[in-house]
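Researcher: Here's my situation. A collaborator sent me these components and asked whether they could plausibly form a single complex. I don't have experimental data yet, so a predicted model of the whole assembly would be a useful starting point for our discussion.
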Amino acid sequence: MNEQLMKVVERAVRPVRAGRTRKLQMRLELLAHLTGLYEEERTRLGDDAAAFAAARERFGDPAELSQELDRSVGVVGRLAWIDTSMEERLENLFGYREDRSLTWHLGRTFLTSVGTCAAIVGLIALGSFLLPEGRLAWVSATSVAPVLLFVVGTTFVVNSAALAIVTDFYDRDRPRWGSALLHATACVVAMTLIFCAVWWSILEDPSHILPQLPLIAFVNALVPAGLILVAWSSEGKARPHREWARLELDQ
Amino acid sequence: MAGIEGDTLRGHLQSLVLATLEEGPAHGLEVIRRLEAGGNGELRLKEGTLYPALYRMEASGLVKAEWEESAEGRRGPRRRIYRLTPKGKKQLAAGREDFKRFVQVIGGILGAAS
């Protein structure tokens, strides 16, 4: 019954142009009211279906309520809605999507890396076209290749680690901390190897880099540590919203 | 006789809600109960529509809302408890004066006609 009540509320709140937090507040408050109506009617009528129909009737038409709720949103709420809409678009573009497979996510990660690489090459090409001759004389396949290797490698590794770490927290009552730690360690190792490979291709005597390895690994560890922190904290905030977003509303 | 509903009720909804909150802080369902009790069953409000009015009053500083501590003793999520602010009390007093004037003027005309 709770899901049926939630659907009545969601029909009213989903179209409202307000920020995510404000809409969750509306949802919870209206659900509390509708649940109260349903309990009253169930005591009076003694039948679940009849009580639901009576509660819905007392609550009012969700479409009309939606319009009134939308009109109650002020300028600040409208700005928050714009912010939320952009955030949702970015999440769709780069965030974890439960309706997609691991292969799809890896493919997207690969394309992001290639896209970043193409953007760098494009900028260099544009620079060589616009800048006076000789300003980009240092640019050559030998000098650009390590940069591209570094960018593509780290983009792919960080994106993959982010994906793996998000799945360790996504929709889990008990996060998979062990798995997250393993993914973080793999990320640190991979980033350190990429860093070393790039520097080895640049330096004449690569042995200089060996004493610096612990420091490099420590700096690289900050990235997955940040990913874990973000995944952990944002999961707690995202779950209540996801519960409502998953409701399928009949037309 | 038909109950009071629609635009007739909506025009006075803000003052009516403020008046119910004068009795003490209340959540939305309790506001409706107080309205029903005060109106002897003549007020017919689609209950969901109370909330946009409450949100507007909250944005205007006429009422202040806080989530209740817990939902213990009943089913469902926590409710928000609304209370009247000093600005809301002033608005209620002004609303009462406006209504008295409205009744005097319109009552005079309608009374004269009958």
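Model: Some features of this prediction you could bring to your collaborator: Chain A has a mean pLDDT of 86. The longest helix of chain A spans residues 213-245.
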